[in-house]
């Protein structure tokens, strides 16, 4: 026996396996693709309308609205001013429309991730068995190159906004799940015991104690999720999602340096605004933790 | 029968408590059980009868099982065997929803590290138990306000716990527990995390409230001074078993074994012992000063010194003379402490 060559599977067997899996998934797509797409229609609907809202509203209103949100979330005048300047620059360099599309997409993806991720995180915190099952799944989601899971997503949904947003959610949801789980598991045992000792139901315990006490950690997860959603903008553009990823792709194909860099900078500006505003909001939420004396 | 009865209570931590229980009942000790079967003996054959309206102190060092014991009363911990009966009802037989009602209405608890909700104000923390009981918000506000006043925190209603000192935080914990009007108050090392001066302060607050409220209080502590000061009855726990039950005098005058003797030797006896423990029937030289039988020795000595006498009569609560005491006896019994110390 040759020890330099690894004993491989027979070529025919490998081919059969490949055919079986590819065929099987194609069958699955044909059988369920449409119903899955229909089930996800609300996501698409929300994305479409949110995008239209941002695009159809006159830009000064959108700009004021954004600065207003940043101010009320963070209460920081300088950050608000920075938001104004940054967004104005994006608009001046002709990327307003793409920036709005990107904003709509990451907002939808973040909302979807939060709505799905927090309950999953709570389930993980409540049961060790769920945690044991979920952990490797989350590992795969976070380490599997995103191009790989684009393949089944494209097979199911084709090219367009929906596959783009699904890809973004798959990539961006693990931090919110993990940090919700972690936050709830780290809640002070004595406070939980106090809630039990006063006769709380498990729902009251969750809403009055566990979630509020885990909130700083959960907010860190939301922040991470937003950042990862932004990082996926270009990859999502590959499957047809509109936004700032499109000029980047175009720039790669045609070696347009200026176009690539300016679209990249626009993504960076969005990322910084959202990151600082959401972190400042998270900190304000826990102002009661400050030592008073 | 009211009050709390604990009967033949066992708690064993480990994979197969039932197997370990048999071994323990056949005489295996805590260390053997741990070494040979890696099960931890938490509580062993606990029998206590806690009187309604009294303060029952459970004293022991860390690892003695005292915190495990108090958590059996409201069933935060399930026992391996035994009975816990509160007001004639078996707590261990309650369904989940009955148990929740029992916890919400019959018992309340004060914790060593306060266990306040950090995201809620003082007021809203005190309201927590009432919220669980389903009481309307206006009544909640009125009742919580009353208890915040009683523990001396008026003006701090809108502060967050992190803005208060430890002593003040525990006042919030006490107000939260009292606000539910539960008859039973479980205090798990409630004052142990506080500075000595503030601890004495809180003991005063508790004793003053208790003289009026007459709740059934179970108080856990590792501090014998504290135990003697506030306990109507004291039981001392070691390695999960009870080694002595009695009132403060019994424990000081008749320590059950060397372990307790060791504890007792550092205690200021004059502040704990009552003069009737030294009473004699000899009335020949009793003098004229009258002292009540529950006067502490230090108080009696001071009063005798002020009156410049060496003898006094002892009277019962109604004022009838029942015996006498001499200053010599008092001094001798105070000095006894020093003798014990010097022989160790």
TrEMBL record, chain A:
ABC transmembrane type-1 domain mapped to chain residues: 99-278
Pfam families: BPD_transp_1
Localization annotation: Cell membrane
Lineage, uppermost ranks: Bacteria, Pseudomonadati, Pseudomonadota, Alphaproteobacteria, Hyphomicrobiales
Membrane topology, record value: Multi-pass membrane protein
Chief place of localization: membrane
Transmembrane segments: 78-96, 102-125, 146-173, 225-244, 256-274
Highest taxon of source: Bacteria
Family per record: Belongs to the binding-protein-dependent transport system permease family.
Record's protein name: Proline/glycine betaine ABC transporter permease
Record keyword Cell inner membrane present: no
Protein keywords: Cell membrane, Membrane, Transmembrane, Transmembrane helix, Transport
Key word Metal-binding present: no
From TrEMBL, chain B:
Subcellular compartments: Cell inner membrane
EC numbers for this chain: 7.6.2.9
Gene3D superfamilies, A to Z: CBS-domain, P-loop containing nucleotide triphosphate hydrolases
Membrane found in the keyword field: yes
Keywords, in A-Z order: Amino-acid transport, ATP-binding, CBS domain, Cell inner membrane, Cell membrane, Membrane, Nucleotide-binding, Transport
Keyword Cell membrane: yes
Predominant cellular place of this UniProt entry's protein: membrane
UniProt similarity note: Belongs to the ABC transporter superfamily.
Identification of the protein by name: Quaternary amine transport ATP-binding protein
Superkingdom: Bacteria
SMART domains attached to this UniProt entry: AAA
Substrates-to-products reaction catalysed: a quaternary ammonium(out) + ATP + H2O = a quaternary ammonium(in) + ADP + phosphate + H(+)
ABC transporter domain sequence ranges: 4-264
Protein source organism: Ahrensia kielensis
Subunit structure, as described in the record: The complex is probably composed of two ATP-binding proteins, two transmembrane proteins and a solute-binding protein.
Alphabetized GO MF terms: ATP binding
CDD domains from the UniProt entry: ABC_Pro_Gly_Betaine
CBS domain: residues covered: 283-340
Membrane topology annotation: Peripheral membrane protein
NCBIfam families, per the entry: proV
Enzyme's top EC category: translocase
């Amino acid at each position: 026996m040759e020890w330099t060559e690894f004993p491989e599977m027979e070529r025919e067997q490998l081919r059969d396996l490949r055919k079986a899996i590819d065929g099987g998934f194609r069958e699955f797509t044909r059988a369920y693709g449409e119903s899955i797409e229909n089930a996800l229609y609300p996501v698409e609907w929300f994305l479409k309308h949110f995008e239209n809202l941002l695009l159809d509203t006159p830009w000064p209103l959108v700009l004021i609205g954004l600065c207003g949100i940043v101010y009320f979330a963070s209460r920081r005048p300088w950050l608000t001013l920075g938001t104004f300047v940054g967004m104005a620059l994006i608009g001046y360099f002709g990327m307003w429309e793409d920036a709005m599309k990107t904003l709509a997409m990451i907002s939808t993806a973040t909302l979807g991730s939060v709505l799905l991720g927090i309950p999953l995180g709570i389930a993980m915190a409540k049961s060790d068995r769920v945690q044991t099952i979920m952990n490797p799944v989350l590992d795969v989601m976070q380490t599997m190159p995103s191009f790989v899971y684009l393949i089944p997503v494209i097979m199911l949904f084709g090219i367009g906004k929906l596959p783009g947003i699904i890809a973004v959610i798959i990539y961006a949801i693990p931090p919110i799940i993990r940090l919700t789980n972690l936050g709830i598991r780290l809640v002070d045992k004595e406070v939980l015991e106090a809630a039990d000792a006063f006769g709380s139901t498990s729902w009251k315990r969750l809403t009055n104690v566990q979630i509020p006490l885990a909130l700083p950690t959960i907010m860190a997860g939301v922040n991470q999720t937003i950042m990862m959603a932004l990082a996926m903008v270009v990859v999502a553009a590959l499957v047809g999602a509109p936004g700032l990823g499109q000029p980047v792709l175009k720039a790669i194909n045609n070696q347009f340096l200026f176009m690539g860099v300016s679209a990249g900078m626009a993504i960076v500006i969005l990322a910084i605004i959202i990151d600082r505003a959401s972190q400042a909001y998270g900190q304000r939420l826990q102002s009661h933790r400050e030592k008073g004396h | 029968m009211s009050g709390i009865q604990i009967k033949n209570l066992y708690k064993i931590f480990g994979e197969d408590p039932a197997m370990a229980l048999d071994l323990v009942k056949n005489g295996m000790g805590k260390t053997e059980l741990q070494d040979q079967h890696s099960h931890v003996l938490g509580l062993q054959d606990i029998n206590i009868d806690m009187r309604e309206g009294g303060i029952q102190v459970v004293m022991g060092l860390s690892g003695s099982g005292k915190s495990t014991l108090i958590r059996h009363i409201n069933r935060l911990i399930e026992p391996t065997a035994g009975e816990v009966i509160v007001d004639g009802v078996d707590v261990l037989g309650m369904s989940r929803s009955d148990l929740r009602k029992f916890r919400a209405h019959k018992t309340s608890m004060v914790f060593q590290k306060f266990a306040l909700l950090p995201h809620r104000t003082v007021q809203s923390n005190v309201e927590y138990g009432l919220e669980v009981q389903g009481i309307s918000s206006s009544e909640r506000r009125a009742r919580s306000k009353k208890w915040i006043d009683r523990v001396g925190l008026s003006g701090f209603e809108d502060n967050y716990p992190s803005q208060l000192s430890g002593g003040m935080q525990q006042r919030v914990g006490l107000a939260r527990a009292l606000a539910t009007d539960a008859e039973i108050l479980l205090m798990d090392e409630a004052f142990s995390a506080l500075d000595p001066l503030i601890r004495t302060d809180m003991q005063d607050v508790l004793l003053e409230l208790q003289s009026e409220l007459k709740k059934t209080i179970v108080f856990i502590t590792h501090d014998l001074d504290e135990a003697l000061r506030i306990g109507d009855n004291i039981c001392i726990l070691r390695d999960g078993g009870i080694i002595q039950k009695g009132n403060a005098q019994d424990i000081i005058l008749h320590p059950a074994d060397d372990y307790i003797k060791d504890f007792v030797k550092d205690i200021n006896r004059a502040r704990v012992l009552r003069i009737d423990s030294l009473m004699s029937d000899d009335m020949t030289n009793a003098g004229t000063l009258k002292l009540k039988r529950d006067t502490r020795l230090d108080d009696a000595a001071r009063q005798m010194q002020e009156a410049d006498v060496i003898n006094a009569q002892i009277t019962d609560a109604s004022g009838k003379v029942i015996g006498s005491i001499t200053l010599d006896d008092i001094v001798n019994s105070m000095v006894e402490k020093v003798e014990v110390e010097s022989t160790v």
